[in-house]
Amino acid sequence: MAAKIIPPSNFAVVQTDLYRSAQPTELNFPFLEKLNLRSVVHLAPDELPPPFLAWLDDQGIRLIHLGDDVGKRSPWKPVSEEMVLEGLSVLLDPASYPLLVMCTLGRHRTGTLVGCLRKLQGWNLTAILEEYRRHAGPKFRLLNEQFIELFDTDLVPVPPRRPSWLLPAAVAAT
Fold first, then answer.
1. Average pLDDT score over the chain
2. Domains of the chain, with CATH numbers?
3. Structural contact between residues 90 and 14, judged by C-beta atoms closer than 8 angstroms
4. Which of 28, 68, 133, 161 has the fewest C-beta atoms lying within 10 Å of its C-beta?
5. Does pLDDT of 172 surpass 80?
6. What is the dihedral of CA 73, 138, 12, 53, to 10 degrees?
7. pTM of the predicted model, to two decimals?
8. Residues forming the active site
9. Count of alpha carbons within 13 Å of 72, Cβ hemisphere only?
10. Residues 140-152: what's their mean pLDDT?
């Protein structure tokens, strides 16, 4: 019998070889194997379950844990600017791809990081917030939306070698 292919909760394609989701479970491993991931960015303060850590190790996938400072913050406050800048530096490095960005539910921390990426890409704020709310659902956070709106893309060092979907025109417009 064939294995079921079940994506993680809140899974979506952000760009070519860049994905977002909630924290995967063992049911999601066959689906994730199809993505040939090289890196996973984990944006939550909690420890990952041992089966997921073992799966990452078995697959040779690099885990980048950027959520350590989140546990020291109120759960209602947006992510830190430092964490977003660190996350964007990973997202802008083609050597990290294919890449999955995740947090516990794939809503707020992941949505904020993706929203700041969209801003760097030159997306209209309405479209950015619509994407954020599509994943956050009725539990969207105005503080996260404000963080995205006020995020200064000039703070992001864009490397000369960047993913092909980040067009030079979008970077120059920021």
1. 89
2. 12-173 (3.90.190.10)
3. no
4. 161
5. no
6. 40
7. 0.89
8. 103
9. 6
10. 91
